[in-house]
From TrEMBL:
Homodimer. It holds the Pfam family Pyridoxal_deC. The keyword Lyase applies. It comes from Gopherus evgoodei (Goodes thornscrub tortoise). The keyword Plastid does not apply. This is Glutamate decarboxylase 1. It comes from the Eukaryota.
């Protein structure tokens, strides 16, 4: 076949998809790159039982114990599983919370249950809603609790909404508090939420997919105070800690619950009369069968860096966020979405072009400002020098959201980003 002009060669297209795309984010991090490469080339896939994957089963157990310890739970009770991402870990949390209260769900299904309700904050990640849809609970039964200006759940509104659900004769089952919200990087007041969960008998989940990494930092871990009172936790090492996708841990405080909830005891894998301790056949805890061995990447990185290495990396990302925050504060053509020091590495801001600065605050200015970030981003993509995400949120029009987690980022990159935004947006 002759080559046609304008068509991408199948070889390039293959390389692009199979080789380049998964690896591009890793090129800046040689360790991570090598580790992921190892996993791909040696095809390290979990095969659900100890006899098939003895090393990885034990690795997973050891790391789950370590993570339990960092959350503040007793090591002996450590239970959990590495899952394909925070979305799935959050799904596990709803699944297990529901099973704990209504074990008949497993055999009888939703028809056997009363009307149940879940609670999340307005700023929570959409995955809890998705879990409610997947698990047959329904998104209408995920109640959004109000947040303050900083994006933190308001405990009194949580309590009011729980009471309202009870008055309707429904069962308040579960709260997902967020430790590090996706957009604002906010930490919900975990201790206050735990008090309410105890008072009304709700399962407390902490979605620390994004902010869990701070547990590695002696300087910043206090922001998760109260996490030790949770029934379950989602923590994604593939976010703040820079482990290559995907690597997410679902941690549950009560041992045995995951197994009871999910096990199907397939006779061809999980024979009870094996010669070894079959509690090491951890595959039946999951909603999968075969599983990718995500724990291996975290294991290697932890061995190479140590907890201190992760701490340095995380503290550095937070310093960059602080640096950006201070820069924005000192420049009159930028405006912060909320004026508070970053608690995580998220910094949310608007760029105000000169033409807009002349217009007084009001709907007219808002309407124009809403168009600024998308236009600048489109120009960024055309020029190919930099990229930053934007979104509207609640009543806030489109704003830029910078997050730091790449260890190669320098202060000069932050300066460059602001210069670029200004250069590309000053005529808008
Ligand atoms: C990213 C994120 C998730 C989802 O994690 P994935 O691994 O992308 O599925 C869940 N919760 C929060 C708070 C997040 O920031």
């Amino acid at each position: 076949m002759g080559k046609k002009k304008g068509k991408v060669s199948p070889l390039i297209s293959f390389l692009n998809q199979v080789v380049l795309i998964p690896f591009v984010p890793l090129l800046c991090n040689r360790n991570a790159f090598l580790k992921t490469a190892c996993c791909y080339f040696f095809k390290t896939y979990f095969r659900f039982t100890y006899e098939i994957a003895p090393v990885f089963v034990v690795m997973e157990e050891i790391l789950l114990k370590k993570m339990h310890e960092m959350v503040g739970w007793g090591e002996m009770e450590a239970d959990g599983i590495f899952s394909p991402g925070g979305t799935i870990s959050n799904l596990y949390s709803v699944l297990v919370a529901r099973y704990k209260r209504f074990p008949e769900i497993k055999t009888k299904g939703m028809a056997a249950l009363p009307h149940i309700a879940l609670f999340v904050s307005e700023h929570s990640h959409y995955s809890v809603k998705k879990a409610a849809a997947v698990l047959g609970i329904g998104t209408d039964n995920v109640i959004a609790v109000k947040c303050d200006e900083r994006g933190k759940m308001i405990p009194s509104d949580l309590e009011a909404k729980i009471l309202k659900v009870k008055r309707q004769g429904h069962i308040p089952l579960y709260v997902s508090a967020t430790a590090g919200t996706t957009v604002y990087g906010a930490f919900d007041p975990l201790d206050n939420i735990a008090d309410i969960c105890e008072k009304y008998g709700l399962w407390m989940h902490v979605d620390a997919a994004w902010g869990g990494g701070l547990l590695m930092s002696r300087k910043h871990s206090f922001k998760l105070n109260g996490i030790e009172r949770a029934n379950s936790v989602t923590w994604n090492p593939h976010k703040l800690m820079g482990v290559p996708l995907q690597c997410s841990a679902f941690l549950v405080c009560e041992k045995g619950l995951l197994q009871a909830c999910n096990q199907m005891c397939a006779g061809y894998l999980f024979q009870p009369d094996k010669q070894y301790d079959t509690t090491y056949d951890t595959g039946d805890k999951t909603i999968q069968c075969g599983r990718h061995v995500d724990v291996f990447k975290l294991w290697l990185m932890w061995k190479a860096k140590g907890t201190r290495g992760f701490e340095i990396l995380i503290n550095k990302s937070l310093e960059l966020a602080e640096y950006l925050y201070k820069k924005l504060n000192s420049r009159e053509n930028f405006e912060l979405v909320f004026d508070a020091e970053p608690e995580l590495t998220n910094v949310c801001f608007w760029y105000i072009p000169p033409n807009l600065r002349r217009i007084p605050n009001g709907p007219e200015r808002e309407k124009l400002l809403h168009q600024v970030a998308p236009k600048i981003k489109a120009r960024m993509i055309e020029e190919g020098m930099t990229m930053v995400s934007y979104q509207p949120h609640g009543d806030k029009v489109n704003f830029f959201r910078m997050v730091f987690s790449n260890p190669a980022t320098r202060k000069s990159d932050v300066d460059f980003l602001l210069e670029e935004i200004e250069r590309l947006g000053k005529d808008l």
